[in-house]
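Narrative of activities, Objective 1.

The group set out to show that a structural description can be obtained from nothing but a protein's sequence at a throughput compatible with the screening campaign. Below is one input-output pair from the validation batch, recorded exactly as produced.
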Amino acid sequence: MNKEELLNSLKEKGFSKKIVDAFSKVKREDFTPKNVRAMAYEDTALPIGHGQTISQPYTIAVMLSLMDLRKGQKVLEIGSGCGYVLALLSEVVGESGKVFGIELVKKLAEKSKENLIEYDNVKVYNKNGSEGLPEKAPFDSIIISAAIRDIPEKIMGQLNPKGGIIVAPKGSRFEQELIAIRRKSESEFEIKKKIPGFIFVPFIGEDG
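Output recorded for this entry:
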């Protein structure tokens, strides 16, 4: 599959123009190791080293759709890996938006900073994601890109209380469902959607 075929596949699956446009603008091959670069536009997850992967484009598109992103928003990705999703987020929220990434693996965090050198509205932190990023909260949307048993309350509390959305693969080590939760007020949350049948690398930490 080449890039045009991938984009057509995403269009056929009904993803919005703003999401397909983001995939069109970001070069996935720039975020993949040389040994798998020829497969950059296959609709599958690919290894990026250190036991981590760059997620399947379809899966990422589903998560971005659940986030209900808009221009100018402030968003956080926990488990940002090589930086590919951060680049897509940057394209969707635009220059007026702010994008933050947390990656525990130091070499991946450093590599992602190189990959994202031209993205002025993206900042990557090399730290454990269990605490979120309270110093930059609240966020209009948070995406967790690793399998998690339960979403920590301290991360939920970093959502914008006026409609902030968190999207995460929640479940066991071997199968998860994508869950989207909206924060309606300081103390009220509602499950927006659940989609079963996904597999992510595990979240590193007590919540993984």
